[in-house]
C-alpha cells in the first residue's frame, strides 16, 4: 500500500467539536457502514455512501451544540446506539434516528468529555474539573480534579474485571480512579488532549491506553491495578500540530491494526508496527483544517476500506484503498471514466445552481438594504483559537481557525513582543507604526490571507516582566463585513511552563510573603503571574507548583496557603518580577503584605553560566551572517574560494541555513542582552543599590563575551 488515495469530500455539516463522528457497525448482508456526526448547531446527521454520493438516513433538529458523540449498546451486541452530549444533557438515539433517552445530569457546567461503549448501563461524564460516573442514570461516583479534564475513558470491564476510569488532565497528568478516589497519577510529556484504548480494546491485557498531547506527542501506557508501565512515546520532531483524535484500524489488511492520528494542523497520519513497541509513520496526508475526528471502516464501496476524517468546519473527507485506475483493459478504464464524467457533470450542475441562488439572494439583500426599514444583521461565525507556549523555542503559537475563509487578521499588543516567522504561514504581513507613549501600543500588524485560507498560525515571543494583552481582530470573507476580537493575556512570567519536578540542588533565592489574604486571593495572584495554573482554587489547605523557564532553563517553585506564600528560584530576576507584581496586586486590594527575601549570591553565577552558551552561540551566528555578503562578493570576483580559510568556506557553504536561522529568531541576541542587564540590576536592587549608570560598561563587556570576565564584573560591581 503506497497509502490510501483521497476519495474526495462526501458532505459538509456544521462546525464540529473533537470526537463527534463515528461509523456505525455494518448490519445484515451489507458490508458498508453508515456515518453519524454531531455538530455545533446541535444537529445529528446520519448518512451512507452510494456510488460516491451521500444518501441521508436521518437528521435531527437543531439544538445546543454537541460536544461529544459515542456509540454504545449492551455487552456482546453491536454497539449501534448513538449517544450525544449536549450542554449538561445526554441523549440517546437508535440507528434509525429515534430518540430513546434524554438524561439531564446535575452538572452545572456543560459536558466536555464522555465515554461511550456504554456497555450495560455505565456512563462516564466530565465537565471542566468534575468527573461523574452514572449507572442506569443514577449518580455512582464523583471526583474533583486538580486541573481541567480534556478526555475520559474506562478500561474494558470484561478484561480487567473492575471499573477503572482514566482522566486526561490539562496539568500533564493522567489520573486513574477507583470509585470516587484517586488510585494514582501518571505524568505524561505534554497536556493530554485525547485518550483511546490500544487496538480499540486495550490490547491483550485490556490495560493499554494511547494518549495524544496538545503539543503533538503520542504515547502508550499500560495502566495496571497498582502502577503505570510506559510502553513507548513518540516526540514531535516534525513540529506538527496537537493531536485531537486517535483510532486503531487495519487499513493495510495484514491482520495488524494501524494507528490513525488526526492533528489540529490538518495532518492525518498512519502509524504501523514493525515491532510491538515501536510504531513508525507509514503515511501522512495534509488537509486544510484541523481534524476533529478520525475513523477507519468500509464506507464507500464494499471490499475497500477507508479512513474517514471530519474537520473543524464540518467537512467529511475519505481516503480509500480502492485503486482509482483499475487493471483489466480499456473497457474497465472507460467504464470508470464514464462514472467519473457523470459525477463531474452532476457537480457542475450543482455548482451552477448554487451560483444562481447566491446571485438571487445577493440582489434580494441589496434591494432590501436600501429600504428605510432595513435592519442589518451581523452574521455569526465560529472561531477556534489556541494560544500556547512552545517549550522548544520559548515562543507562543497563536492558531486561529475560522469556519469560512479569512480575509485579514489584525494583531495588536500593548506590551513589547516579537513576531517570529512561521514556515506554514502564506499570509502577507504588513506592520503599522504605532505610538507606544499615550496609549501603550507596541505592535500593530495586519495579516492579509490568500483566498480559501481558513487557518492562520502566528508566533510571538514575549519579554518576562512586561505584561498585558495581545488582541487579534479576525475578519472573514463574508458580507456584511464583520470582525471578532479575541484577547490573550501575556503574563508577567510568560515564558514559564509547568513541570512535574525540579532540581532541588540548585542555588535558590527565596521570596516570602505574609499577610491577611485568603488562599483564593493568593491563588488568583499566582494565576495572574504565571501561565498553565488552573483558575479554580485548589482543594486542600496548601499547594505547590513547579515551573521551568523555557528560554533559559531556570526554575521556580511556588508553595502557598492562606496568609503565607513562598517562592524559590535560581533566577533572581524571576523573584524580582514576582515581588513587584505581587505587591502591586496586594496594594490594589488594600492588603498589607510583609515581604522578606533571601538572596543567594551563588545563584547569579549559576544563571550567567546558563545564559552564556546561548549568548556565545547567538553572537557567533550574528558575526557569520554579517560576513556572508562580503564572502559572496569575493566568490563572484575570484571565481573560486579555495584560497579562503576553512572556517570562511564553511560559512559560505552553510549560508542559506545561517540566514534562515537568523531570520527565524529576530532580536534573540537583544533579548539575551536584556536578560543579563536585568539580572545585573536585580542583583543590586535587592541590596538597595542602583547600578543603572554601570549598564553601558556591562554592554561593552558583553560584546567581548568572556564568561569569566562577565562573572568578575558582576562580582566587582
From TrEMBL:
Keywords: Coiled coil. SUPFAM superfamilies: WD40 repeat-like. Residues 496-598 form the BBS7 platform domain. One of its GO terms (cellular component) is ciliary basal body. GO terms for biological process: intracellular protein localization; non-motile cilium assembly. Residues 601-714 form the BBS7 helical hairpin domain. InterPro entries: Bardet-Biedl_syndrome_7_prot, BBS7_GAE_dom, BBS7_hairpin, BBS7_pf_dom, Beta-prop_BBS7, WD40_repeat_dom_sf. Pfam families: BBS7_GAE, BBS7_hp, BBS7_pf, Beta-prop_BBS7. The keyword Coiled coil applies. Residues 337-364 form a coiled coil. Residues 21-321 form the BBS7 beta-propeller domain. Residues 379-488 form the BBS7 GAE domain. The keyword rRNA-binding does not apply. PANTHER family: BARDET-BIEDL SYNDROME 7 PROTEIN (PTHR16074:SF4). This is BBS7 protein. It comes from Cepphus grylle. The gene is Bbs7.
Amino acid at each position: 500500500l503506497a497509502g490510501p488515495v483521497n476519495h474526495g469530500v462526501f458532505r459538509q455539516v456544521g462546525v464540529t467539536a473533537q470526537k463527534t463522528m463515528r461509523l456505525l457497525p455494518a448490519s445484515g448482508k451489507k458490508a458498508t457502514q453508515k456515518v453519524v456526526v454531531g455538530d455545533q448547531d446541535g444537529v445529528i446527521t446520519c448518512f451512507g455512501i452510494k456510488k460516491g454520493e451521500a444518501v441521508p438516513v436521518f437528521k435531527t433538529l437543531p439544538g445546543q451544540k454537541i460536544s461529544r458523540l459515542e456509540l454504545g449498546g449492551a455487552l456482546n451486541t453491536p454497539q449501534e446506539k448513538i449517544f450525544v452530549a449536549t450542554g449538561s444533557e445526554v441523549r440517546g438515539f437508535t440507528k434509525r434516528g429515534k430518540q430513546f433517552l434524554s438524561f439531564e445530569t446535575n452538572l452545572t457546567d456543560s459536558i466536555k468529555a464522555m465515554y461511550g461503549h456504554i456497555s450495560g448501563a455505565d456512563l462516564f461524564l466530565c465537565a471542566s474539573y468534575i468527573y461523574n460516573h452514572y449507572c442506569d442514570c443514577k449518580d455512582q461516583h464523583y471526583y474533583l480534579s486538580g486541573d481541567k479534564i480534556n478526555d475520559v475513558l474506562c478500561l474494558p470491564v470484561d478484561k480487567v474485571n473492575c471499573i477503572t476510569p482514566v482522566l486526561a488532565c490539562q496539568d500533564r497528568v493522567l489520573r486513574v480512579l477507583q470509585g470516587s478516589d484517586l488510585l494514582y497519577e501518571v505524568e505524561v510529556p505534554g497536556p493530554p488532549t485525547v485518550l483511546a484504548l490500544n487496538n480499540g480494546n486495550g490490547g491483550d491485557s485490556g490495560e493499554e491506553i494511547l494518549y495524544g498531547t496538545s503539543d503533538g506527542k503520542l504515547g502508550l501506557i499500560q495502566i495496571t491495578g497498582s502502577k503505570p508501565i510506559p510502553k513507548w512515546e513518540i516526540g514531535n520532531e516534525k513540529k506538527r500540530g496537537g493531536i485531537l483524535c486517535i483510532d486503531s484500524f487495519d487499513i493495510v489488511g495484514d491482520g495488524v491494526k494501524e494507528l490513525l492520528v488526526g492533528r489540529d494542523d490538518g495532518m492525518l497520519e498512519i502509524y504501523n508496527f514493525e515491532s510491538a513497541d515501536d510504531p513508525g509513520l507509514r503515511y501522512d496526508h495534509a488537509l486544510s483544517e484541523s481534524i476533529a475526528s478520525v475513523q477507519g471502516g468500509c464506507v464507500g464501496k464494499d471490499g475497500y476500506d477507508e479512513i474517514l476524517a471530519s474537520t473543524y468546519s464540518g467537512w467529511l473527507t475519505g481516503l480509500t484503498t480502492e485503486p482509482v485506475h483499475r487493471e483489466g483493459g480499456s473497457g474497465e478504464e472507460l467504464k470508470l471514466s464514464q462514472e467519473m464524467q457523470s459525477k463531474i457533470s452532476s457537480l457542475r450542475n450543482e455548482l451552477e445552481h448554487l451560483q444562481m441562488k447566491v446571485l438571487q439572494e445577493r440582489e434580494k439583500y441589496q434591494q432590501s438594504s436600501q429600504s428605510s426599514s432595513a435592519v442589518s444583521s451581523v452574521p455569526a461565525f465560529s472561531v477556534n483559537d489556541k494560544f500556547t507556549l512552545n517549550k522548544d523555542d520559548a515562543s507562543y503559537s497563536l492558531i486561529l481557525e475560522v469556519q469560512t475563509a479569512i480575509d485579514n487578521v489584525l494583531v495588536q499588543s500593548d506590551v513589547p513582543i516579537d513576531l517570529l516567522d512561521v514556515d506554514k504561514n502564506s499570509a502577507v504581513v504588513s506592520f503599522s507604526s504605532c505610538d507606544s507613549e499615550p496609549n501603550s501600543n507596541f505592535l500593530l500588524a495586519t495579516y492579509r490571507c490568500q483566498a480559501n485560507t481558513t487557518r492562520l498560525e502566528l508566533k510571538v515571543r514575549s519579554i518576562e516582566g512586561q505584561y498585558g494583552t495581545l488582541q487579534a481582530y479576525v475578519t472573514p470573507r463574508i458580507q456584511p463585513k464583520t470582525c471578532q476580537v479575541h484577547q490573550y493575556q501575556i503574563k508577567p512570567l510568560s515564558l514559564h511552563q509547568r513541570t512535574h519536578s525540579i532540581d532541588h540542588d540548585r542555588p535558590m533565592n527565596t521570596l516570602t510573603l505574609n499577610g491577611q489574604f485568603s488562599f483564593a486571593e493568593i491563588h488568583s495572584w499566582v494565576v495572574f503571574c504565571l501561565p498553565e495554573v488552573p483558575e479554580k482554587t485548589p482543594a486542600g489547605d496548601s499547594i505547590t507548583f513547579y515551573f521551568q523557564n523555557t528560554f533559559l532553563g531556570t526554575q521556580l517553585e511556588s508553595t502557598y496557603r492562606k496568609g503565607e506564600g513562598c517562592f524559590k528560584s535560581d533566577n533572581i530576576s524571576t523573584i524580582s518580577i514576582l515581588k513587584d507584581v505581587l505587591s502591586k496586586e496586594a496594594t490594589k486590594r488594600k492588603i498589607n503584605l510583609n515581604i522578606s527575601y533571601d538572596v543567594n549570591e551563588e545563584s547569579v553565577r549559576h544563571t550567567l553560566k546558563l545564559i552564556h552558551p546561548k549568548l556565545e552561540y547567538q553572537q557567533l551566528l550574528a558575526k557569520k551572517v554579517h560576513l556572508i555578503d562580503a564572502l559572496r562578493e569575493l566568490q563572484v570576483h575570484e571565481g573560486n574560494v579555495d584560497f579562503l580559510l576553512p572556517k570562511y568556506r564553511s560559512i559560505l557553504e552553510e549560508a542559506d541555513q545561517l540566514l534562515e536561522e537568523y531570520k527565524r529568531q529576530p532580536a534573540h541576541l537583544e533579548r539575551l542582552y536584556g536578560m543579563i542587564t536585568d539580572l545585573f540590576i536585580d542583583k543590586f536592587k535587592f541590596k538597595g543599590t542602583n547600578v543603572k549608570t554601570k549598564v553601558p560598561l556591562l554592554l561593552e563587556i558583553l560584546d567581548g563575551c568572556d564568561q569569566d570576565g562577565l562573572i568578575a564584573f558582576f562580582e566587582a560591581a
